[in-house]
């Protein structure tokens, strides 16, 4: 199974490794203010190599068990974003949830759109999933545009859906149907 894609001439999408903990922590420090309105309140350990190494160990164990795919966007030797499929459900549901972020220094280059599209294609062709769901805060219009460009449609809204930036926040819910294959069909 190949879960790697070149997104641009200088950005690679690949599955995270334990060796990426320091680079991810540095990216989180660099993007702390940029990401704060869109993410849960993070402990100080989140911004350290040790904290990320512990998190990566758990996440990579879940990846090995087919429950999550933790991709990083890498430019040179820097982590410049992440795409994560979580709660991968096999069987008749064949569904997953998508979360993502892009480095503040690379905004406006279409990188999120390219990465979401690549993840959707890999979820279909390599992971053999049927659908991907995603949620955005109601006011996160930029992320909603990315999802819509990638074939996601809004399927509803949910009040007090996620605890983000210290408060329960309303979200729009999206999904993309990847295919109509029956489970197990090639």
From TrEMBL:
Name the residues that span the membrane. Answer: none
Q: Which SUPFAM superfamilies match?
A: Acyl-CoA N-acyltransferases (Nat)
Q: Which domain of life is it from?
A: Bacteria
Q: Which InterPro entries match?
A: Acyl_CoA_acyltransferase, GNAT_dom, N-acetyltransferase
Keyword check for Transferase, yes or no: yes
The record, for Pfam families, names: Acetyltransf_3
Keywords recorded for this protein, A-Z? Acyltransferase, Transferase
Can the keyword ATP-binding be found in this entry's annotation? no
N-acetyltransferase domain sequence ranges: 11-175
Entry's family note: Belongs to the acetyltransferase family. RimJ subfamily.
Protein name (record): Ribosomal-protein-alanine N-acetyltransferase
